[in-house]
Amino acid sequence: MNITSILAWLRRLPSSLAEQAVWLSARSDICAFCRKPIQFDNSEATSGLKLPLQLRQQLCNPCLSTIPWLTRILCPRCGRGIHCDDCIRQPNRSFICNRSAVQYDQTMRSWLALYKYRGNEELAPLLGAMLQPAFEELSLSLGATMKRGSIAACWDAITYVPVSSARAEERGFNQAEQLASYLASRYHLPLLPLLSRERHTGKQSFKSRSERINDMKKIFRADLSSISKLEQIYGSVADTFSRTHARIILVDDIYTTGSTAEACAEELTASSSVPLEVFVLTWARS
Amino acid sequence: MRAYVYVICIMGKWKAYSTIAPAVDRLFWLHESAGQRMGRAGEAATEGWLWLQPLPLWDACRAAEQWNLERGRRGGGRSDREDVPCALAACVAAACREAVGARRSVRAKVQQGDSLRGGAERWERAALAGELEGDGAAGDSAAAPEGLGAAARRAAALLKGRALLRSEAQALLEGAAVPGADSGWSDVLQLAALLGLVRLHGSVAASIGNRRGLLRRSRRELRCLRCGSGEPQMRRTACASCGRECAYCSSCIQMGRSRECELLIEGHRSKEALISARQLHSIEERLSKWKLSPAQSEATAKALQFVESPSNGMKPTATAFAIAPIRSFLLWAVTGAGKTEMIFPLMESILLRGGKALIATPRRDVVIELDPRIRKAFPTASIVTLYGGSEQRWERGDITLATTHQLLRFQQSFDLVVIDELDAFPYINDETLHYAADKCCAPSAVRLLLSATPPLAMQRDARRGALPHARIPVRYHRYPLPVPKLLRTPMVAKLLQSRRLPVSLLSELRSSVMRGAQLFVFVQRIAQAEPMADLLRSQLRLAEVAATSSQDDERSNKVKQFREGKIRVLVTTTILERGVTIPRSDVYILDADGRLFDEASLVQMAGRAGRSADDPAGRVFFCSREHSRSQARAVSHIKAMNRMARKQGYLLPEPASKEVSR
Fold this sequence. Notes:
The complex is a heterodimer.
Chain A: H1 3-24, H2 53-58, H3 61-66, H4 85-89, E1 97-103, H5 106-116, H6 124-141, H7 150-154, E2 157-160, H8 165-171, H9 175-187, E3 195-197, H10 209-215, E4 220-222, H11 224-241, E5 246-255, H12 259-271, E6 276-285
Parallel strand pairs in A: 1-6, 2-5, 5-6
Antiparallel strand pairs in A: 3-4
Helix pairs in contact in A: 6-9
Chain B: E1 2-10, E2 13-19, H1 22-30, H2 32-38, E3 47-51, E4 55-56, H3 57-73, H4 83-100, H5 105-116, E5 120-124, H6 125-129, H7 131-134, H8 140-143, H9 145-159, E6 163-165, H10 166-175, H11 185-194, E7 198-202, E8 204-212, E9 218-224, E10 234-238, E11 245-249, E12 263-267, H12 283-288, H13 294-308, E13 327-333, H14 339-352, E14 357-361, H15 364-377, E15 383-386, E16 399-403, E17 414-419, H16 431-439, E18 441-451, H17 456-464, E19 469-472, E20 485-488, H18 492-498, H19 503-514, E21 518-522, H20 526-540, E22 545-547, H21 555-564, E23 569-572, E24 585-590, H22 599-606, E25 620-624, H23 629-647
Parallel strand pairs in B: 13-18, 13-19, 14-16, 14-17, 15-16, 17-18, 20-25, 21-23, 21-24, 22-23, 24-25
Antiparallel strand pairs in B: 1-2, 1-3, 1-4, 3-5, 6-12, 7-12, 8-9, 10-11
Helix pairs in contact in B: 1-2, 1-11, 2-9, 3-4, 4-5, 9-11, 13-14, 22-23
């Protein structure tokens, strides 16, 4: 056994320990979202979906069962559960496709508000765990299996939609970054900050569709050192997996018109010297 | 957010300060005339040094503290010029090291080495002298020192007696249209702080070095200054607004996030002593207009005497934020005694003497219900009602009515604090509410505790004489409390399963309905409420049966219908054990031996019956498989109160109901 493999093993050790520790962690008594006591019984309130353990341990059954999982996907491009006009109107996207974990309804809106606006960062791992089924589904469709390491091999890097420095200062954290870093440590993916946000646009929620699309022009800038790191990673594995493109997953919290994802993917593909495949993973599809 | 630290020399003495708007500080201390126009009272400083790099808020405050401590130890002696920036750098480095923990001291040392040179900027008076006149448009603050001074005073007046997070203070100032509140809020607040009118610091702060963790690293023990929560409630996360790992308080997060680098603004309340009670009319004279029952007036007179007696701690304390002893008085009154009427004379006394009164109650419904009654009793006073989503959020009045959580936003603000239902749900196991109830009291304020069922420790204190108190063992209508009857019934789960009620229970229920009473039916679990309502509907052949619980969105609507008599039978959980008064009502407590129903809650539920003078003998039933200790205690509690009432002659002369003989 050579030194590098030992080092690699040591590097993997903490995260795999952390993964096992989830099993040992105390079940919480109250639901993370509704703050009501959890009654544990064996009746699973899930719609045939195998849910991550973390969710089952920290959420009460009523909350678990209200999650509007997006399991039935009708638009293969944007991952919507309904027939989609946006994707017909704009057939040329810079990203391959988007997959979202849940439908963005009133409950999901309130959950996201607790995390994003109230600043309850304890919810980050839970929202991250909610991304798992969609992420695994997406990886499987790309040829991965559920075997250990197979999902990691399927991707070259994971990245996230950045926030402007003003917003980061105001909020204290970037929700997309926290979600991405959860997935990165869960699946042993390299997390790269490939983008930065140049300009502070107003809150997206107050804008119309066309305003959003115009707003998004040229506000993301690729981070060159991270891009070269990505190229390096791709260079080292391209032959083994016989891929023609570097494959990255871009994480964000909400997908509405797709203009944010489009702007990010456009900037990424333009600034990378290796051919890129950008997949988008969002927590909610509105 | 980040802040700066600087030192200035006034008359040969160096002092350090932290600031969120260094330009304001510079003018204030070093500019002879502008500083005076801003409101500086003393001598201008001769020189100063600003640490150029912005630091996380806590670190900046700590660095200033460190400097002042060290100078204090050395007797504030003169240090030569070259020494100052180095000493400042050392303080900054020490504070940063403390903040990240000793483990990372190596990195802090490297930073220190880098930033020693050119880390500080020299402030000189000479350089400033011409700046104002020559370059008037340099900034808002430089342009109009008087304007800024006036704005700061205005802001301080608005913030008086409050403890607000930055965003809340901003909303308050913007709402009141204080000039410069939108963009120059930091200038305004910083000047108010320099004038000593408000205090700015991190909302979560550390006390250092009492405990050492593993590896002998001294741990910083963090505490939320807004809600008083300690280390277990702290969550440390990487923070983009201060650039290091920083903790937030998970306990009061529903009131906005309080974190280490979040600014907490505490407004000083100027010390106007209350007018002496001697200038008021006599207690009897004032009491007469409130039309209280004999038991009520006797207890109220005792409380009034306590409120108006000069406290021992009246001497003004040296610092504005020193903790003065809060004097508490317990009003131990049975359910339906008319507690609200009894606090009116006490509030009147405080208002007449120029003080501010607060009524805190755990439930929002109660606040909303109390509002019109208070307005009617005090038509001339300004009244502010605060609860989550209230429109009067930033208003200030003589009387404040608030849900308990709102108290977190006040600091030494009230002279009379009435805490209603202090044994009720949110107070139990919630240290933060106790902390808030302490924090909102002005120095030497009186705190009035209201309860029908005080916690055991408090009962003990009262009996021992350690807690001044008055007991009101009788209802305002002077009839005795209905004594609960015990009924043996199977468990609710069984009843629901068999879909049948035992004959004994059913006949009592029928006779209650027959006599025209409305029925409270209490169950243990939320899930049982709806099925129980169905069962009662079919067994009693009565359509007007409803169920409600804390998870019912229609609750306030159903309670309203119940009050109007449109619902005859209401199945509910402990959520309605207090606060709802129905004139003619009977109470059935199912599974009364259950874990969730303790003595206090049984007494409260029993207290729903016989509230009005027209129907003083409401009926109460404890229905359970076995008779628990809590039930026995509740019954003896009620009987003891009735005995006491009879002994003291508060009951009406002739026995008006059968209950008396029991």
